[in-house]
C-alpha cells in the first residue's frame, strides 16, 4: 500500500466511491425491472367512457340537426329581431310593404324610404342616448386638468441642447423652441 503511494484515507475514499457507483447501478437495474405497465395498453382498449371521436359530422346529408321550417318562415325572423332583455318604450312603427312591379321600382327612393324607417324606429338596436357630462372641475372628483398645461409654460429648463442632437430630434427641438419663444 505504501509502495503505491496511497495513504489509508485515499484508499478508503476510492473504495467508498466504487461502492456508491455500484449501488447506483444496482438501483437502476431494479427500477427498470419493476417498471409499471401503462394504464391503457393499446388504442383498441376502449371502455364505455373512453371513446375516440374522429368523425366531423354529416355535412350536407345531415338534415335532421336543424329545423328547416325556421329558415323558410319569415315571421320567425321578425320575432327574433328584437332583444328579449330590453323592451322598447315605443311600439314599433308599422311597415308599409308596397306592392310594385319590377319595372316601376325606383331603387334610390326605396333605399331612402327604408333608411328613414330604420332611423325613426326606436325599437331597434343600438339603443342610443345622449350622454351628458358635468363641467370639468364642477363638483367632480377628478377636478380640473388645466394645471397640466401650466407646468410646461412656466418651466425654467433650457432646451437649446436639443438642436445639437441632430436631425432625429429636429422636430422635438422645434416644438420646445416654440414653447421657449412663447414664454419670452
Protein model, in words:
With 184 residues, the chain is mainly α. It has a domain at 159-184. It has 6 helices and no strands. The longest helix has 26 residues, at 8-33. The chain is flat, with a radius of gyration of 43 Å. The mean pLDDT is 69. Its main location: membrane. InterPro entries: Cadherin, Cadherin_Y-type_LIR, Catenin-bd_sf. Cadherins are calcium-dependent cell adhesion proteins. It is a single-pass type I membrane protein.
Topology overview:
Blueprint: H1 8-33, H2 68-72, H3 74-79, H4 107-120, H5 147-153, H6 170-183
List keywords for this structure.
mainly alpha
The oligomeric state is single chain
Mean pLDDT: 69
Number of strands: 0
What structural class is derived from the secondary structure elements? mainly alpha
What Rg do the Cα atoms give? 43 Å
β-strand percent reads under 5%
Taking pLDDT < 50 over at least 5 consecutive residues as the criterion, the unreliable ranges are: none
Biggest beta sheet summary: none
Shape: flat
Please work out how many helical segments DSSP would assign. Answer: 6
Name the helicity range: 25-40%
Order of helices and strands: HHHHHH
Amino- and carboxy-terminal Cα gap: 97 Å
Amino acid at each position: 500500500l505504501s509502495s503505491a503511494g496511497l495513504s489509508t484515507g485515499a484508499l478508503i475514499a476510492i473504495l467508498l466511491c466504487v461502492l456508491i457507483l455500484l449501488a447506483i447501478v444496482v438501483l437502476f437495474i431494479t427500477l427498470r425491472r419493476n417498471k409499471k405497465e401503462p394504464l391503457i395498453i393499446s388504442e383498441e382498449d376502449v371502455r364505455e367512457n373512453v371513446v375516440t371521436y374522429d368523425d366531423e359530422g354529416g355535412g350536407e346529408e345531415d338534415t335532421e340537426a336543424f329545423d328547416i321550417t325556421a329558415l323558410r318562415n319569415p315571421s320567425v325572423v321578425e320575432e327574433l329581431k328584437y332583444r328579449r332583455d330590453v323592451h322598447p318604450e315605443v311600439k314599433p312603427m308599422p311597415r308599409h310593404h308596397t306592392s310594385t312591379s319590377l319595372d316601376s321600382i325606383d331603387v334610390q327612393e326605396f333605399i331612402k324610404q327604408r333608411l328613414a324607417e330604420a332611423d325613426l324606429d326606436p325599437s331597434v338596436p343600438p339603443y342610443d342616448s345622449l350622454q351628458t357630462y358635468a363641467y370639468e372641475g364642477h363638483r367632480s372628483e377628478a377636478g380640473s386638468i388645466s394645471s397640466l398645461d401650466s407646468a410646461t409654460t412656466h418651466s425654467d429648463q433650457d432646451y437649446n441642447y436639443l438642436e445639437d442632437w441632430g436631425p432625429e430630434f429636429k422636430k422635438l427641438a422645434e416644438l420646445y423652441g416654440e414653447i421657449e419663444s412663447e414664454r419670452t
